[in-house]
Amino acid sequence: MQVTGIAVRLGDDVDTDVILPGKYLTLTDYHELAKHTLEGLDPSFSEKARQGVIVIAGENFGCGSSREHAPIALKYAGVRCVLAKSFARIFYRNAINIGLPVLEAPNACTQIREGDIVTVDLKKGIVTDESLNQRFTADALPDFLLELITDGGLVPHLRKTKAAK
Questions:
Q1: Where do the domains of the chain lie?
Q2: pTM of the model
Q3: Which of 61, 125, 126, 137 is most buried, with most CB under 10 Å away?
Q4: Which CATH number does 2-164 carry?
Q5: How far apart are CA 112 and CA 56, in angstroms?
């Protein structure tokens, strides 16, 4: 499974309250949540993300509270994948559970520039910066997590599995 998008760079310690400010947690429409994604950090993010982006982040991405709203907002904003040097553990699993691919790729996150076209092979763990014509390695996702992502997240995966029985 591959995803391609335009690189949007973020820094270290981007917490869930920065990804989606707490004042929007009462919204139930995921498309409305998406409009407010990263608005305090980059007011134009939701507009950029509509084109389909790959977020390139630093250390400890998704730290803070364990709210699922943060990865949901990213996914519905148009983020196709998040590459980071490291992730907060709960954010990482919440992202997988809602079907948002996340991979640790420290070297790629150091080299890829804002606006570069990036392709990520989730199964092989290969990140290609099409603009620089460079390849990097990432921690590939195991098959069972790829299946969750392909199915759209944990709940759709469980529905599919139950229907197959």
A1: 2-164
A2: 0.94
A3: 61
A4: 3.20.19.10
A5: 8
